[in-house]
Design a protein that fits this description.
By secondary structure, this protein is an alpha+beta fold. The protein is 22% helix and 32% strand. The protein is built from seven helices and 27 strands. Strand 20 (377-381) and strand 21 (385-389) form a beta hairpin.
C-alpha cells in the first residue's frame, strides 16, 4: 500500500512538473506572438512621390493630368467590359500604376526594390529571373531560385481563383497576365514569399502571395521595380495581412508642390488609428470590388449647395458611376454634371477673369500674383459628414502668377477623389469595419 502511494506521489509530481512547464511556456509563446503582432500593428512606411524625371513643377503637373485621365478611362472601360462579360483573359486591363513609391524586400535572403503603391489595384508583384523580358531597375532583380522561402501557388489555391480573368493557366502552378492603362504589363507565376515592408528594421511576414513577373513592360512604371496593391481584393497587401494589422492602414500625403524627395507616411494597424476623426461608410461595388467607393451626397461652396442633379454621385445598379477615393490619381475628377456646376459656382465666387491653363492642362486658371479671396468647397457625405477643402487642396499654383482649380471634368459617369484633395489629411481605410476616416493633419510632422 505504501509503495502504491509513493508511486502515485511520483506520478503527481511529474504531472505538476508538466503543468508548471505548460504554465511557463504559454505566456512566453503568447508574449512572442504579441510582440510580432505589435510590430506589424504599428508599422510605418515612407512614401516617395514619383517624379518621372520631370525638370520642373509645370511638367510634373501636366503629366499628372495625363495619368489621371488615362486612369479614369481605363477604370470605366474595365467596368463596362466586366458588366457586359466581355473581358478577355488574353487582354486583361487593370488601372494605372499610381503615384507613390515604397521600399519593399522579398525573399530569404531578402532583395530590396522600390514598389509603386496603388489603392486601385490588388496584385503585389516584382520582376523575377529568369527574364523573358525585364526592364532596367536600379536594384537587383529578384531571383526565386536563390530564396529558401519561395514556393509557387497551385491552381487549386483560392488565391489563384482570386486572379479571376487575369489568371492565364496552370502548369500545374498558377500563372497570370496583368496589363495597365499606361502600357505597363507583367506576366509570370503567382507565388508565396516572405516580405519585409519599409526600410531599416521593417517587419517581415511569410506566405504573402505575389506575382513573380518574368515578362514585364515598363512604360508607366517610372522608378518602380514592381507594385504593391492596396485595393479591397483578396490579393492586395491589406487583405493578406488582415488581422495582423487590424485590417486597416492610413496615409498622410504631402502637397504635390513639395519636393519629390520628401516622404509621406503610410501606417498599418493600430498606429493608423485616428482620434476625433470624421468617419463615413464605404460602398462596395460587386462589379469592381477592388475600389474604395465613398458616399458623396453633394457639394457646397461658401455654404451654398452647388446645383448638382440628385443622384449624380450614386453608384448605379449596373456597377457604373459613384465616386472612388484613390491615392494614384492626382486631381479630383468629377463627372460633367457636377464639374460644370462646380466650375460655374467658383467662377461666380472669384472676381477675376479666367486665363489659359493649357501649360498644365487644367481647365480653370487665373492670372494673379497677389492675394485672392478663395471660396470654401465642401464635399458632403452620407450621415452629414463634411470634407472641408483648404484653399491649397482646391487650387494649385503652377507658377508665381498662375492659380488653377485642381479638378478636372469627365464625360464618364465615375468620379475620383484625388490625392491633391487628400493632402495634409490623414486618411484611414478600415477594411473590417467598411469605413473611411479622415482628419486634417500636418503630414510632415506626423
Amino acid at each position: 500500500m505504501e509503495r502504491h502511494y509513493s508511486k502515485i506521489k511520483m506520478q503527481c509530481s511529474k504531472l505538476l512538473g508538466v503543468l508548471a512547464f505548460i504554465c511557463f511556456i504559454i505566456p512566453v509563446m503568447s508574449s512572442s506572438s504579441e510582440r510580432q503582432f505589435n510590430v506589424w500593428s504599428r508599422l510605418r512606411v515612407n512614401l516617395t512621390r514619383i517624379s518621372e524625371g520631370e525638370s520642373n513643377l509645370t511638367e510634373r503637373l501636366r503629366e499628372a493630368v495625363d495619368r489621371g485621365k488615362k486612369r479614369l478611362n481605363t477604370i470605366e472601360a474595365s467596368l463596362k467590359q466586366q458588366i457586359a462579360g466581355q473581358l478577355d483573359a488574353e487582354t486583361p486591363i487593370r488601372v494605372g500604376s499610381g503615384e507613390f513609391l515604397m521600399s519593399v524586400a522579398v525573399g530569404t535572403p531578402s532583395v530590396s526594390f522600390e514598389a509603386i503603391v496603388d489603392t486601385g489595384s490588388n496584385l503585389i508583384w516584382t520582376q523575377c529571373l529568369p527574364c523573358q523580358n525585364c526592364y532596367n531597375q536600379p536594384t537587383p532583380i529578384f531571383d526565386p531560385s536563390q530564396s529558401s522561402s519561395y514556393s509557387t501557388v497551385p491552381c487549386t489555391d483560392s488565391l489563384c481563383d482570386a486572379l479571376d480573368k487575369f489568371k492565364t493557366g496552370c502548369t500545374p502552378d498558377c500563372t497570370f497576365d496583368y496589363k495597365y492603362d499606361d502600357g505597363s504589363e507583367t506576366s509570370g507565376d503567382l507565388a508565396y514569399e516572405s516580405f519585409s515592408i519599409g526600410s531599416g528594421s521593417g517587419s517581415t511576414v511569410a506566405g504573402i502571395a505575389f506575382g513573380c513577373g518574368h515578362d514585364n513592360q515598363r512604360p508607366g512604371l517610372s522608378e518602380g521595380g514592381g507594385l504593391v496593391g492596396l485595393g479591397r481584393g483578396a490579393l492586395s497587401l491589406i487583405s493578406q495581412l488582415g488581422s495582423k494589422v487590424d485590417n486597416k492602414f492610413s496615409y498622410c500625403l504631402l502637397p504635390i508642390t513639395d519636393s519629390t524627395s520628401q516622404t509621406s507616411p503610410l501606417i498599418f494597424g493600430e498606429g493608423a488609428s485616428l482620434s476625433g476623426a470624421n468617419t463615413i461608410p464605404l460602398i462596395k461595388n460587386s462589379n469592381y470590388p477592388s475600389f474604395w467607393y465613398i458616399p458623396v451626397t453633394g457639394i457646397t461652396l461658401n455654404g451654398n449647395p452647388v446645383n448638382i442633379p440628385a443622384g449624380t454621385f450614386d453608384l448605379q445598379s449596373d456597377g457604373r458611376g459613384g465616386m472612388i477615393i484613390d491615392s494614384g490619381t492626382t486631381y479630383t475628377i468629377l463627372t460633367e454634371p457636377a464639374y460644370i456646376s462646380v466650375k460655374e459656382a467658383i467662377q461666380s465666387a472669384i472676381d477675376l477673369t479666367p486665363t489659359d491653363g493649357s501649360s498644365v492642362d487644367l481647365d480653370l486658371c487665373y492670372q494673379t500674383s497677389g492675394q485672392v479671396t478663395l471660396p470654401t468647397l465642401i464635399f458632403n457625405f452620407k450621415g452629414g459628414v463634411d470634407f472641408v477643402l483648404p484653399a491649397d487642396n482646391l487650387f494649385i499654383r503652377p507658377s508665381d502668377n498662375l492659380l488653377c482649380l485642381a479638378m478636372l471634368g469627365t464625360s464618364r459617369k465615375l468620379s475620383i477623389f484625388g490625392n491633391v484633395q487628400q493632402q495634409n489629411f490623414q486618411i484611414l481605410y478600415d477594411n473590417a469595419q467598411n469605413t473611411l476616416s479622415f482628419e486634417p493633419t500636418k503630414c510632415d510632422s506626423l
